[in-house]
Write a structure and sequence with these properties.
Blueprint (H helix, E strand, L loop, with lengths): L2 E5 L2 E4 L4 E8 L8 E6 L6 E6 L5 E3 L7 E6 L4 E6 L8 E7 L18 E2 L3 E6 L1
Parallel strand pairs: 2-11
Antiparallel strand pairs: 1-3, 3-8, 4-5, 4-9, 5-6, 7-8, 9-10, 9-11
Length: about 130
Amino acid sequence: QWQLVESGGGLVQAWGPLRLSCAASGRAFSTNPMAWFRQAPGMEREFVAAASWSGLAFYSDSVKGRFTISRDNAKNTLYLQMKLLKPEDTAVYYCAADQRSGDYYYAGRDIAEYASWGQGTQVTVSS
């Protein structure tokens, strides 16, 4: 089981950038898919981006072209670089780890595939 700790959230103006980090401890995650999800007030938690252990990236349509997920397996850290932020990106952002080792090309989009979660970091985008 990992302990996942997100950081980097905050208040940013619309169209600005922000980078989130997720530090994992407890075990190495070099063979496991990792992902970012977010949850806005009154909404269900939704998929944002995922990375296979090899670094292959998958995005939701709402963030494609604006967000970039990356990982440093040597540092056990997952990142989410966000650009051109919009007010509708305001949410609590969660880092998640799939405890099953994945294959080179795969990282899931389904919440149920991820067993380890961080506590979340708030991102607020002002218009």
